[in-house]
Structures are given as structure tokens and as C-alpha cells.
Automatic annotation (TrEMBL):
Protein location: Periplasm
Protein name (database record): Peptide/nickel transport system substrate-binding protein
One of the record's GO molecular function terms: peptide transmembrane transporter activity
Predominant cellular place of this UniProt entry's protein: periplasm
GO CC annotation, single: outer membrane-bounded periplasmic space
Organism: Devosia enhydra
UniProt entry tagged with the keyword Signal: yes
Gene3D superfamilies: Dipeptide-binding Protein, Domain 1, Dipeptide-binding Protein, Domain 3, Periplasmic binding protein-like II
Keywords: Signal, Transport
Family as reported in the entry's similarity comment: Belongs to the bacterial solute-binding protein 5 family.
Positions of the Solute-binding protein family domain: 83-441
Length: 537
């Protein structure tokens, strides 16, 4: 039995920032000490690979570690950042220093205060050791100092208007007292004896089966000061189809993975199941490995771009739940930044053939395919949407005389081959959140950058990115941002297919008061949502 109390979570959540919508705000439950433990079961399709939140890059890694290691800011639907643990921040007039004020009521689960020292430790370790994605997002960082328990001051190498928001949202903060000395943070497994300043603490792991987290007693970012449920269990399923069956059977409460359109449609209208939506701030795309011939030839990349039936992908594979980005790495959702002149690559198999002929390819045996041109397309086999449109890419490319072999892999192998080994011809995937062009262009397209899977190295592109990142106002950044996006499109460094509205399903007979945030990375399973959700039983 759950004891109900009334409160103003909606208002407080908006003040804390980043909330898209709250579902079923009928009342917030507080768990009585005499009540039975409440547990919500969440489905995922992959194990946790890294318990170190600074290293982890998969969705399962993020979903679990986000519940223990807080970020300083929250994300809004339009991609801006609002206060959360951080209350206020700003820059000096010359742009060469910055500051941040944080809450004074946060503690780690072992009773140690959460202070500015933890922030200084985390950002120094990340930048010194060049750990993970965030290191590439804050190239202007020089040093940080905790001038009080709640205030951090930063020195920058140059003006960088994206520094604070990138650092504030993208870098989870880890406990200085529970992590090793700087120099070893990036190799720290963090696979036991966890310490949390989030709403939950990981307590049990059964690899391949489940991950159990229990509520901590102090989480001041919700009105009740504690999560309204006692336990969160992530349960591993082979794919989203298996998750959908478990949800229908009542063995699962939330499907964390974004639902493929066909599965979402089968769940809509089912008794006790609600399909919720979260806006996308990222995109689906294909990257061509520039380290490999013939993909280092722009004519071949353009031929591949014109061999894709984009309308069929959005209309058939995505069943209309996707929109064109005009083949641009700046989604029209980011209306301030998007270039109104951008046009999608036309699906034109004959133009593809002309480009390949110009590149020196022939069909000597007359079988309808160009000789010595066979490429593999790497994708995650549990990502049903991508698996569906990968087949469309193969079929439409065949009309242009291009053979494509589909290679579907489990997620961790897929990520290793793409990110670490660069062992692919064509990479099919998604970026979950791409909300600040001046920042993410550097992360994805600067030489050697962390998610530059395609191995792009273009001095002119880097000059545009540098100019955008050094800009002190959005107006000054917009011109180089749009120039960079146009160059990426012209050179086919990234073939962006669509952005979508993500769909997620949960058992609405049992649960209410989720707080949805944008992207498939945050969605229903963000910390504020799982701290706010209440049982209806």
C-alpha cells in the first residue's frame, strides 16, 4: 500500500528544469516504513559494459549510472539547459573565465557531502586523461578551482560560449573520495562498492539477467526528498519484441528502448498499456569509413547518398514517424541553427551510376552490379528500426548497381567495431542528443574526436568548427555552423536520414507520474522520472 500526499512536483520540476511533460500527476506517493517495497521493472536489450559513468557510452550504461551520478543541468525540449544540481552560472566579460554555483543540500550515499571539490575532481580527471565524450566537448578548459563548497571557478583558454552547458549537462559528477587518484580514473572499473548522489544505488548485478538499484534516503531534487519507490530493476531481454511480450504479460513495467513503429502500433490501445512520446534531439544516419577505399572517394560517397530511398525509409520502415533533416547534420528541430537552403539528397539510381562511372567503375560482366564494388553495412541487430531500413538501403542501392552486405551485431560488438576498431565500410546508427551544433560538430567531425567514427579529417571543416566554438554569441556562431554543415553535406561525411519522435511503453495500470525528457537516452528512465514515479496499487 502506498500512502499518498499532495504536492507541487510539476511546478518544482519546471523550476529545476528540463521537464517535457509529466504523466498522471494525480498525486505523489511517499513510501511508508511499514509498507512493502515497491519495485519497477525496466526492460533493456544490453548489459552494462562500464559502471564508470565517465567511460560508459551505451544506453544501458547511461540508464543505470545516471541514477547514481548526477549531472549539473537538465535538458529542455528545445535542447537548452536548465538548473538542476547547478543553480546559477556565467562567464567573465572577456570570456576567459567562468563560474558555477551548486546546491548545498546534496550528499553521497555514504554520508559524504557533495561539494564543488567533486566537480573539480571530475572535470580535471576527464580532461587530463581525455576520458569519454565530454573531454571532446570542452576543449577550452584549462583549470577549475573550488572557491567554496558550492562555487567552482574555471579558467578557459579562449572564449567558449558552449563550455558551461556542455560540461553541465554531459559530464556526470563522480565522488572524489570513492574514485582513484587522477591519472587512473579512466581505467577505474567501479564495478563494486558503489556510492551514489542520485535517487538510487546499485546493489545487485546478475550479468545477462538483471541490475537492481535501491532508493537512497536523501535525494532533495524531488519534493519528498526521496524516491517514491524503493527499487528499480533493469532486466535484460534479447530484443524489443521480447520486451513487448513481457509488457503485455505483466512481467515488465517499462520498455526503456525506443519502440520500432510496428511494435508501438501493436501496443497502442492495449489494456493497461500507454505509449508515450519523447521528442528527438538527434538523428539516424549512415557514416562512410574514410580510411577505406573506395569510401575515401567523394564520388563514391555521393553515389551511395543518391542510392538511398529516403521516402521509403521514413514511410515504410518508420511508418511515417520520422521527418527529413534535409540531409543536414543540423535538424530542423533546431530552428535557429538550421539552414533553410539545405536540400535532401535525391534518390536517383541513374545519377549514382553516372558518379560511379566517373569514379572508374564498370559492369564488365553485365550482371547489373559494378565490378569490384561490394560494401558491408554494420548495424545493431537489436535496433529494429535500423534493421528494417538497412534492408531498404540494400535494396535501393542494388538499383544503382551497388552490392551491400548487411552485418547485424549485438550492441557491444557493434560499438567496439565502430568506435574502437573502425572496422566497417558503412556504419548505420543514431546519435541520441545533438543539441548544440558548435559543440557536437567538434565532437563528431574534428580529427580524432571521440565519436568521429568515419575518420573525417578536413582542415576547412575544423576552421569552421573552431570559429563557431570561439564565438561569443549565437549570432556570431550561426554563420560558421551553417558553413560547416554545408561542407559536411557536400562531402557526404555524414548521410543523415531522419529525426524522429521516440515512442516508449509502460504499464499504466500500475504506474503514474513519470517525467518525460527529450531523446531516447532520457525518455521515461531519467533520474527525475524514476524518483517521481508512483505505484497506483
Amino acid at each position: 500500500m502506498i500512502r499518498k500526499i499532495t504536492n507541487a512536483l510539476t511546478r518544482r520540476a519546471v523550476l529545476m528544469g528540463g521537464v517535457v511533460m509529466a504523466i498522471g500527476m494525480a498525486g505523489i506517493g511517499a513510501v511508508s516504513a511499514q509498507d512493502a517495497a515497491t519495485r519497477i521493472v525496466i526492460g533493456t536489450t544490453a548489459d552494462v559494459v562500464n559502471y564508470n559513468p565517465l567511460v560508459g557510452n551505451s544506453r544501458s550504461d547511461t540508464w543505470v549510472t545516471n541514477l547514481m551520478y548526477p549531472r549539473l543541468m537538465q535538458m529542455t525540449p528545445a535542447g537548452s539547459k536548465d538548473p538542476y544540481v547547478a543553480l546559477d552560472w556565467g562567464y567573465s566579460e572577456d570570456g576567459l573565465s567562468a563560474w558555477m554555483e551548486i546546491r548545498d543540500d546534496m550528499t553521497w550515499s555514504d554520508g559524504t557531502p557533495f561539494t564543488a571539490d567533486d566537480i573539480v575532481f571530475t572535470i580535471t580527471a576527464v580532461t587530463t586523461e581525455k576520458i569519454g565524450v565530454t573531454a571532446g566537448l570542452i576543449p577550452s578548459f584549462v583549470s577549475a578551482t573550488a572557491v567554496s563548497p558550492t562555487r567552482v571557478e574555471f579558467v578557459l583558454s579562449r572564449p567558449d560560449s558552449t563550455f558551461l552547458t556542455n560540461f553541465g549537462f554531459w559530464m556526470p559528477i563522480v565522488p572524489k573520495h570513492a574514485f582513484p587518484e587522477i591519472g587512473s580514473v579512466g581505467t577505474f572499473a567501479n564495478d563494486s562498492n558503489w556510492v551514489s548522489a542520485g535517487p538510487f544505488l546499485l546493489t545487485e548485478v546478475e550479468r545477462g539477467q538483471r541490475y537492481l538499484l535501491k532508493a537512497v534516503e536523501n535525494y532533495p531534487l524531488v519534493e519528498t526528498g526521496r524516491a517514491n519507490i524503493d527499487e528499480v530493476e533493469f532486466r535484460v531481454f534479447p530484443d524489443v519484441n521480447a520486451q513487448a511480450l513481457a509488457l503485455r504479460a505483466g512481467d515488465l513495467d517499462i520498455i526503456a528502448n525506443a519502440l520500432p513503429a510496428p511494435i508501438a502500433r501493436t501496443l497502442q490501445g492495449q489494456p493497461n498499456i500507454t505509449v508515450a512520446q519523447a521528442p528527438s534531439l538527434g538523428w539516424a544516419h549512415m557514416l562512410y569509413n574514410l580510411q577505406r577505399a573506395p569510401l575515401d572517394n567523394v564520388l563514391v560517397r555521393r553515389a551511395l547518398a543518391h542510392a538511398v530511398d529516403y521516402d521509403a525509409i521514413r514511410g515504410i520502415a518508420m511508418q511515417g514517424l520520422a521527418e527529413s533533416t534535409n540531409s543536414s547534420v543540423i535538424s530542423p528541430v533546431l530552428s535557429y541553427w538550421a539552414d533553410p537552403e539545405a536540400k535532401e539528397y535525391a534518390f536517383d539510381p541513374e545519377l549514382s551510376k553516372q558518379l560511379l562511372t566517373e569514379a572508374g567503375y564498370t559492369d564488365a560482366d553485365g550482371d547489373g552490379f559494378f565490378d569490384n564494388l561490394s560494401l558491408s553495412l554494420l548495424y545493431e541487430q537489436s535496433a529494429a528500426d535500423i534493421a528494417n531500413w538497412a534492408q531498404i538501403v540494400k535494396d535501393s542501392s542494388a538499383q544503382a548497381g551497388i552490392r551491400i552486405e548487411l552485418v547485424g551485431l549485438e550492441r557491444n560488438t557493434y560499438l567496439a567495431r565502430a568506435r574502437e576498431q573502425k572496422d566497417f565500410d558503412i556504419y548505420a546508427g543514431t546519435w541520441a542528443v545533438m543539441e548544440e551544433p558548435a559543440a557536437y560538430l567538434g565532437l563528431a567531425f574534428r580529427t580524432g574526436a571521440f565519436i568521429n567514427y568515419a575518420s573525417v579529417s578536413d582542415p576547412q571543416l575544423e576552421a569552421y568548427i573552431n570559429e563557431a566554438q570561439a564565438a561569443t554569441s549565437p549570432e556570431a556562431a550561426r554563420v560558421p555552423v551553417q558553413a560547416a554543415a554545408k561542407l559536411i553535406q557536400d562531402q557526404v561525411y555524414d548521410n543523415v536520414l531522419y529525426y524522429q519522435t521516440f515512442q516508449f511503453a509502460y504499464n499504466s495500470e500500475r504506474w503514474e507520474n513519470f517525467v518525460i525528457q527529450p531523446s531516447d537516452l532520457l525518455s521515461l528512465v531519467n533520474p527525475l522520472s524514476l524518483a517521481s514515479v508512483t505505484s497506483k496499487n
